[in-house]
């Protein structure tokens, strides 16, 4: 499956995908990595593995739509068919989503629908939950909202630093995101309203 990965930061989730592809356990190929932050370490990670990496600074565009159109153009030119958001901190317009219907995935570091937004781990820690986790979902027009593909849970320890919880969550992100992308690559995901069915693998 030819994919594009969108990042804004460190790109450890991008790295987990690259590692699975290089070890032959993820049937996808990253055609392009795009960051809206020109200094994102994720771009360096891509270049280190010979993957085309492009900075498109959203502040250079007059509107969300104009920025999204530039991304769509770059993604389509790369040959990618699906889009994987990996720590990409911009909301996508329908202009973008309509270009890749049913083919945009996101990972969020909380058990949705709890704690959407930019600080899922911190919000969960401050709330005092005993179970935290992460969610891979299809992307729709609302932030951290589309149909859930897979979730994983970790214990949350009362009074611990947010960073410790976030690190425990991130480890699980690195397991469930490649799994979800592999299911997409195998064409095993079927969306029925909010419900995502996992079809059996063909042999
Ligand atoms: C992850 O926690 C992801 O869930 C999120 O932002 C973080 C990105 O980490 N929304 P990285 O850039 O993949 O290391």
From TrEMBL:
Residues that hold N(1)-(5-phospho-beta-D-ribosyl)glycinamide according to the record:
11-13
The UniProt entry, under SUPFAM superfamilies, shows: Formyltransferase
Which InterPro entries does the annotation name?
Formyl_transf_N, Formyl_transf_N_sf, GART
Q: Which UniProt keywords apply?
A: Purine biosynthesis, Transferase
One GO cellular component this record assigns the protein to is: cytosol
Catalytic residues in the record: 108 (proton donor)
Record site: Raises pKa of active site His: 144
Instruction: Give one Pfam hit by family name.
Output: Formyl_trans_N
What the record says about family reads: Belongs to the GART family.
What does this protein do, in the record's words? Catalyzes the transfer of a formyl group from 10-formyltetrahydrofolate to 5-phospho-ribosyl-glycinamide (GAR), producing 5-phospho-ribosyl-N-formylglycinamide (FGAR) and tetrahydrofolate.
PANTHER family cross-referenced by the UniProt entry = PHOSPHORIBOSYLGLYCINAMIDE FORMYLTRANSFERASE
Protein's name according to its UniProt entry:
Phosphoribosylglycinamide formyltransferase
Q: Which organism is it from?
A: Paucidesulfovibrio gracilis DSM 16080
Q: Which gene encodes it?
A: purN
């Amino acid at each position: 499956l030819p994919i594009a990965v969108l990042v804004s930061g460190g790109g450890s989730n991008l790295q987990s995908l690259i590692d699975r592809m290089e070890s032959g356990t993820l049937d996808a190929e990253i055609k392009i990595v795009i960051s809206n932050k020109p200094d994102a370490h994720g771009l360096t990670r891509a270049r280190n593995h010979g993957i085309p990496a492009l900075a498109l600074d959203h502040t250079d565009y007059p509107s969300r739509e104009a920025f999204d159109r530039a991304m769509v153009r770059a993604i389509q030119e790369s040959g990618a068919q699906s889009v994987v958001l990996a720590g990409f901190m911009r909301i996508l317009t329908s202009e973008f989503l309509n270009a890749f219907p049913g083919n945009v995935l996101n990972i969020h570091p909380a058990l949705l629908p709890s704690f959407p937004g930019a600080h899922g781990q911190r919000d969960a820690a401050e709330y005092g939950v005993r179970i935290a986790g992460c969610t891979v979902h299809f992307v729709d027009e609302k932030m951290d909202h589309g149909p859930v593909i897979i979730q994983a849970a970790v214990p949350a320890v009362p009074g611990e630093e947010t960073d410790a919880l976030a690190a425990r969550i991130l480890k699980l992100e690195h397991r469930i995101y490649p799994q979800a992308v592999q299911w997409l690559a195998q064409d095993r995901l079927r969306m029925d309203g909010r419900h995502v069915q996992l079809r059996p693998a063909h042999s």
